[in-house]
Amino acid sequence: MDGVECDWGRVLEWEPPHRLVVTWQINGHWQFDPDPARASEVEIRFAADDYGTTVTLEHRHPDRLVAGEAIARTITEQGGGWSTLLELFAKTAENSSTGGDPA
Fold first, then answer.
1. Nearest partner of 83 among 59, 60, 100, 101, judged by Cα
2. Cα-based distances in Å from 71 to 11, 16, 30
3. Which among 70, 8, 76 is positioned nearest to 39, based on CA atoms?
4. Measured between alpha carbons, how far is 33 from 41 in angstroms, rounded to an integer?
5. Cα 10 vs. chain centroid, distance in angstroms?
6. In degrees, to the nearest 5, what angle opens at C-alpha 13 toward C-alphas 20 and 57?
7. What pLDDT is attached to residue 103?
8. Long-range CB contacts (< 8 A, 24+ apart) of 9-12?
9. Cis peptide before 16 (omega within 30 of 0)
10. In degrees, to the nearest 5, what angle opens at C-alpha 24 toward C-alphas 3 and 11?
11. Angle at 76 between CA 28 and CA 21, to 5 degrees
């Protein structure tokens, strides 16, 4: 919100329009960890179906993250996480297709 940018990972695989795999290099202290050996991976898949597009997100290898359990605890206690992000994505996509206000 304040305009600061954060390096958080790298693109591992890019197969438009079906698949994207990136590293997640934010540790349990919510700081960038430059060591790729301590990175988890996030894969996002897009598949056409009878209703539009199904988006599937898989976060793999969270055990590699330094203090990764702290992230899970923060999300559990304060809300958020991938499910919240996907809900916002779906709401924005739905509003875009219907011409509604994305807010």
1. 59
2. 21, 29, 8
3. 8
4. 13
5. 13
6. 30
7. 56
8. 9/39, 9/42, 10/36, 12/41
9. no
10. 85
11. 55
C-alpha span between 54 and 23 (Å, rounded): 22
The two structure tokens encoding residue 66: 């330094």
Instruction: Decide: helix, strand or coil at residue 35.
Output: coil
Residue owning tokens 């499910």 = 83
Task: Map tokens 């990764």 to a residue.
Answer: 68
Query: How does pLDDT run along the chain (103 residues), one tens digit per residue?
Result: 688 888 889 999 999 999 999 999 998 888 899 999 999 999 999 999 998 889 999 989 988 988 888 777 766 677 677 878 888 888 988 888 777 665 5
Model pTM score: 0.76
pLDDT at residue 76, as a whole number:
66
| 65: exposed, middle or buried (Cβ count in 10 Å: 0-12, 13-18, 19+) | buried
Tokens of 59: 């976060």
